[in-house]
Amino acid sequence: PAVLRAKLNKRVGLVRQMRRAGVRPEWMFLTTIPVMPPALRPMIALDGGRHATSDINDLYRRVINRNNRLRKLLEVKAPEVILRNEKRILQEAVDSLIDNAMRRGSTQAMGAGAGRRELKSLAENLKGKQGLFRQNLLGKRVDYSGRSVIVVGPNLSLDQCGLPKHMALELFRPFVISKILLRELAFNIRGANRLIEEGAPEVWAILEEVIKNKYVLLNRAPTLHRLGIQAFKPVLIEGNAIEFHPLVCPAFNADFDGDQVAVHVPLSEKAQEEAREIMAADKNILKPGSGDPTVSAKMLDILLGCFWVTKIISGEKGEGKIFPSPNVAITAYDFGEVGLRAQIEVLSTDTEKYKAFEGKLFTTTVGRLLFNSVLPSHYPYVNKEVDRKVLQDIVNTMIETTDLRTTAHLMDRIKEFGFKYATKSGITWGLDDIEVPKEKKEIVDKALQSADEISRSYDEGLLSEDERYRKTIEIWQDVRAEIEKLMPDTLDPNGPVYDMLKSGARGQVGSISQMAGMKGLITNTVGRVLSFPVISSYKEGLTPVEYFVTTHGARYGLAATALQTAKAGYLTRRLVDVAQDCTILEDDCGETAGLSVRVHDGKDAGGVEASFLKRAFGRALAKDAKDESGKTLFKKGAILKKKDIELLEESTVEEVFVRSVLSCKTIRGLCRACYGLDLGRNKLVELGEAVGIIAAQAIGEPGTQLTMRTFHMGGVAGENITMGLPRVEEVFERRTPKAPAVIARTDGIVLDMKKQNSEHTIVILPDVGSKTKEATEYAVPFGRTPVVKVGDKVEKGQQLSDGSTDLLELFKVAGKERTEDYVIDEIVRIYALQGASVSHKHVEIIVRQMFSRLKIKNPGGSRFAAGDMIERAHFMEENIRLTKEGKELIKADPLVLGISSVALSAGSFLSAASFQNTTRILIQAALRGAKDTLKGLKENVIVGRLIPVGTGFKKGVVVARAEEVLGGGEMLGGGEE
Does any domain span residue 569? Predict the structure, then answer.
């Protein structure tokens, strides 16, 4: 029987591993116990002559006492029953020394009764967040750091930060002291220190000199992605707060309501060089997760200033004047002859900027002329109101056509300009700037009547409870929408509120409609919409009942956010652990098949645009891209940038084949060509880039935004389909979904759909080539709604009802590639619904890891047993070895695992032990006599070596490829046979 076979396999495997490792079974019985060095179990003398001691000392003491007592009892030949008891308690003492938590029930503790606390044993000192692995080996404290509150530094350039001078003096103290000694202002370190304490003027001069070309690192917790730590040039300032550049706030997710940042000093020359070349803030203006610029993400008042200055106001001074050149117009404004926002006509000059006007007159304003004078001389004239979209287009174009630093410095100029005119505008906002629409009363009265009619029909038994609820909610949703439509018209088009809204600087129509329109419907804590609408707006004031109902939702929101943040953090941690050793190892693995991407693809699942741009941007072509006439547009190996993609979309190319991480043949890593563009730097990824960790951060960082809408109503009975973070976790951990969808097991055509008291049945006729010949019936359970209709063609693995597909089932039915696609689409879709964009390639890396384990079917000439789980890389390496020795190869089936299982089954036991289940992993490693080859990142951090990525990457590492294994394809047997 299978159960017995598995058990026997396990026992045989254990014996085999112990033999290979040279571990003797009798070693399992401890005859001597090693004692930890005293430094690791310190005693501290407290005042009053008492001692505080480490728990481990107590546990050791108990073992010694009981052992000695047992020895005495044996010498005096005590009765059997006493000996037996003494042996038992000695065994207990040894057990709890090694792992106190293993012994449920009889744990060793200090004191009795209420003051009882369990002692921390050896194993507990390794486990968990406070244990040795995570507290001491993976996270260490550093010297030369400080922290302080941040304030805005509007006059800094993008790569600068203001550092309080007392803080700087403390941070750069060693450098200052060495300079003091060099100049012989003091003769020993003590003297130099005294000089610093006195605050001598020479000291400040020396400090200025010391920090001249140095960079410091600023870090704001929580560091969710690479951009949470960046390097800046310090500028000495008075006061105690760190000045922070406003445009780097979005990257750190910082604001100025009391956030703090930590400062770290890179000490060595090499560290300074890395800070300058790699981490400088003006070189990191793109998000590694999506390739979007961070600097233009939140420009608030800068944007408001630019928008205000580029508007046209009728009736301003000098309207309709004509000027012979832009400079004359600006001079006229300086002399007060023409208003800043008056519509004027200007004769264009023949520079590149005015090319579009062909030397003719064009209508514009002085404000627009000024705004354009900030942009580079070759940038075409922007002759419209500069709102958020326009500014982002400018930034994106600059990034495409120039490099990141140029863009960064342009942003600085725009920042100065925006702040200047936002100040000039004197925009302010008062209660009377928003008005309640006049039509509101009438609309609400009509809705109240309809609601009354509905409840009357319900009382007469014409409607069910469910229908009444749905109809009532529909009415109020319509009312809210109708009032929201009226809102923009109530605003004064030259007023401040309109400017803020229209420019995209802050706020949405929704918030204004809550202030002066109608607050609308409220959800309760379970996420069900209450049928009691809040009719008032904040301007009119809420009634006590309305206020009470609102409080409920608001409070729930705050509590949920706090809890969700922890969940998102834990997800990131698991993702990092599963992908940490995915690094770029070689230039090209020679993969030629590639993934096919349709060029003219419409909307993707869930109505979210997963466009061709999203899928193909920044990837290398696996084959030449040819259009219908056979003309080659792009050669194989070309990296597709945005311009190329626009070109392809206009052409007649049907599909292109792009390289993908999923099909990369490099073992224990990836190659540059399959990964493609490094989104954070906008160029081909470098060797040794830690792409796994970047992928984990890219998925984890927006995770906190996936908080709110966890459920959306689906199905007639209103059964919930999990969305948001819980669904992401469900997919990555390969859990069975709460509401599984029905999926097709064969390709075919929908023949018939029957409905029998709320249960649907779908009948599918399989295609000619399938194994099954007769039509199959699929029962759709209560609460699920079918999503196919009669006559539809279905593929195997396709969803027939709403709900979430179960990965295991999909994998069994449709195989690996289909499952990979589903996971990628599902994850990207969930993020896109929340407006957080994550590039496909990051999800692909995680998916590659989920599929990176195999189950051995036939061990061949290797040292494994059937049923063992093995890493794909290890499997390849073994097979290469077996091929060379001419032995039988291993045969294995692919598996799909959740990310935690993958992280725990990592080849490196240090990496796995520092993740979870520490004790269990270390015990297994000891039995196996496991070796850790220190290939990944975590292992190297733990033993304190440089990690083998980035600047620590050593070229010329031997890289094995899938190709070298005989007949690369067949031995990776699919899940079919």
Answer: no
CB 392 within 8 A of CB 298: no
Maximum distance among all alpha carbons in the chain? 119
Residues of the chain with pLDDT under 50: 603-609, 710-719, 963-977
Q: For tokens 């389909």, name the residue.
A: 721
Number of domains in the chain: 7
- pLDDT value at position 605? 42
pTM for the whole structure? 0.85
Contact between 382 and 397 under an 8 Å Cβ cutoff? The reply is no
pLDDT at 958: 53
Give pLDDT, residue 849: 92
Contact, 216 vs 145, CB < 8 A?
no
Q: Which domain holds residue 366?
A: 300-425
pLDDT at residue 935 in the model: 83
What pLDDT is attached to residue 776? 80
Helix (H/G/I), strand (E/B), else coil: 323 = strand
Confirm if 725 and 706 have CB atoms less than 8 A apart. yes
CA 857 to chain centre: 37
Q: What is the DSSP string of 180-232?
A: HHHTTS-SSHHHHHHHHHHT-HHHHHHHHHHTTT--EEEE-SS--SGGGEEEE
Q: Read off the pLDDT of residues 838-859 as tens digits, 9 standing for 90 and up.
A: 888 999 999 999 999 998 888 8
CATH code: domain of residue 460: 1.10.132.30
Is residue 566 situated within a structural domain? no
Residue 792: both structure tokens together = 């539809």
Beta bridge partners of 534: 520
pLDDT given for residue 712 in this prediction: 38
> Do residues 645 and 598 lie in contact, with contact meaning Cβ atoms separated by under 8 Å?
no
Q: What is the structure's pLDDT at 863? A: 77
Q: Supply the CATH number for residue 596's domain.
A: 3.90.105.10
Q: Do 224 and 265 touch, CB atoms closer than 8 A? A: no
330 CB neighbour count, 10 Å cutoff: 16
Q: How do residues 205-250 score in pLDDT, each as one tens digit?
A: 999 999 999 999 999 988 888 999 999 999 999 999 999 999 999 9
Do 636 and 713 lie in a common domain?
Answer: no
Nearest to 696 by CA among 829, 583, 810: 583
CB 925 within 8 A of CB 23: no
- Confidence at residue 423, expressed as pLDDT on a 0 to 100 scale: 93
**Cis omega before residue 293 (within 30°)?**
no
The residues, ordered by sequence, that sit 6+ positions from 267 with a Cβ below 8 Å of its Cβ are: 144
Cis peptide bond upstream of 222, omega within 30:
yes
Burial status of residue 398 (CB atoms within 10 A of its CB: 0-12, 13-18, 19 or more): buried
Other C-beta atoms closer than 10 Å to the C-beta of 738 total 14
For residue 552 the two structure tokens come to 């409920």
What are the start-end ranges of the E strands in 846-917? Answer: 853-858, 869-871, 891-894
- The reply to whether 656 and 753 lie within a common domain is no
Tokens (6 digits) for 761: 């049945």
